[in-house]
Amino acid sequence: MARSSRISGYYNLPPAERRRIAADWAAMTPEQSVAVEQLLSAPGGLALEQADKMVENVVATYALPLGIATNFLIDGRDVLVPMVIEEPSVVAGASFAARLARAGGGFTTETTEPLMIGQMQVLDVPDVGSACEKIEAGKQRLLDLANSTDPVVVSLHGGARDVEVREIWDSPVGPMLAVHLIYDCRDAMGANMVNTACEALAPLVEELTGGRVNLRILSNLADRRLARASCVVPARELALEGKSGDLVAQRIVEAYALAAVDPYRAATHNKGVMNGVDAVVIATGNDWRAIEAGAHAYAARDGLYRSLSTWSYDPQGFEGEGALLGSVELPMAVGIVGGATRVHPLAKFGLQLMGVKTARELAGIIAAVGLAQNLAAIRALATDGIQKGHMALHARQIAIAAGATAAEVDAVSAVLVAERKIRQDRAAEVISEIRSKKY
Ligand code: NAD
Q1: Residues of 223-246 as b/e, b for ≥16 C-beta within 10 angstroms?
Q2: Is residue 426 part of a domain?
Q3: Which pLDDT score, from 0 to 100, does residue 144 have?
Q4: What is the pTM of this model?
Q5: Average pLDDT, stretch 269-298?
Q6: Which value, in Å, is the radius of gyration of the alpha carbons in the chain?
């Protein structure tokens, strides 16, 4: 059934109505819809007994807002995107930018094979040249041994693909080898399966190199497991208060240009990309520290930390008229099996909502959301500045922090915004004034 993620006014609906739409969207049957609705109405979505099995010394669960971004058209498919995030404006920004990109055909994504790298650190190697030759000659034995550790992933056409050796001559403890196992993780993030394989290989690596293996762990610089997303935004969609769309597009390209060459700007620019990326990574129960580590290491891959995305202006980029062209590329080690993806009930819901069938499909969606979020942020920065849009939401948070009840929040934040005094002390005063019926 064809359905559109372009749900106008979703943000104006009460949460229960938003939930109903999401439950219908995620479900295949009416019974599933009821089950999803029940899950979404339960606070936090994670029972203490489940949490107690996930990590150690559990005393409680800690809930964050789960929002749903609308308007995403990704590889020709309409997608509603679950986003878990504490920061205001991110879900709205992603939805807004998805609408802009939608006018140009939405996002196009591409992913590499899900290849992770496991590292074995080999010290005290007596003869580096001969050790490298023996690893090369023993490659098939190493691959076979690695593949014996996870028959399930091998049966799914994943598993060990290659072994490479890197010579490191200068380190704080002298020379060493880094033996890399290249491993196809299929639909899992893969940390545990790669670590297990590396631990199993260590004795054979020691035998072949004559050295001593210390570390055996995957690398979070997953630069063989990349996700790319691109979009074409018709410039006319960017027109704003007296500024032509072409002008706004050019201002966005100027904003990007600083991030392309300057780490101070690139760090903030990429933080904007990661606002979108992390929110979906968390919503699907994936390991966001792994994604963050990989993204930032990748951004610095040529020695200078740079923007993960690129933006350019093409005067005839869309139907003969001006367009803004965007793309992003980053490592994306996410799974739809393993870790918390099938343990946290809301992570299962998130995957079901997006209808993803493979980890690669999820990786592409996440890259698209990162690109959308980046566009929303730099568009705001290159036009009104970021604070204008932020203020109303920020004022709400300040009002809550100052003790406003749910019934008071809107009135308090309206006063703060009108007075342009978004401060907790003023919020506290307004709350007392409201309570003494001054408003
Ligand atoms: P996992 O340990 O749960 O393994 C996934 C299992 O699913 C595999 O053993 C595989 O046999 C099975 N499987 C079933 N169907 C599959 C399919 N279609 N594709 C692939 N495998 C399939 O999960 P994992 O992904 O190996 O590990 C992820 C966890 O490791 C995360 O919780 C992460 O936080 C954690 N971790 C991360 C790091 C790091 O990033 N440095 C280090 C250690 C652990």
Answers
A1: ebbbbbbbbbbbbbbbeeeeeebb
A2: yes
A3: 98
A4: 0.92
A5: 98
A6: 25
What count of Cα atoms within 13 Å lies in the side-chain half-sphere of residue 140?
Answer: 1
Instruction: Tell me, yes or no, whether 49 lies in a domain.
Output: no
Q: Is residue 101 domain-shared with residue 213, that is, in the same domain?
A: no
DSSP per position, 290-311: HHHHHHHHHHTTTSS---SEEE
- Report how far residue 57's alpha carbon sits from residue 240's, in angstroms, rounded to the nearest whole number: 52
Q: What percent of the chain has pLDDT over 70?
A: 98
Cα dihedral 37/43/47/52 (nearest 10)? 140
Which of the listed residues 113, 115, 116, 153 should we mutate to test ligand 1's pocket, taking the one with most ligand atoms within 8 A of CB? Answer: 153
* Residue 92: strand pairing partners: none
Per the structure, the complete domain to which residue 294 belongs is given by 65-109+229-382
Ligand 1 atom index nearest CA of 151: 11
* pLDDT tens column, 162-186: 999 999 999 999 999 999 999 999 9
Q: How high is the pLDDT of residue 387?
A: 65
Position in ligand 1 atom list of the atom nearest CA 193: 26
Mark whether 139 is an active-site residue. Answer: no
User: Rounded distance, CA 271 to CA 154, Å?
Assistant: 36
Ligand 1 close to Cβ of residue 215 (< 6 A) = no
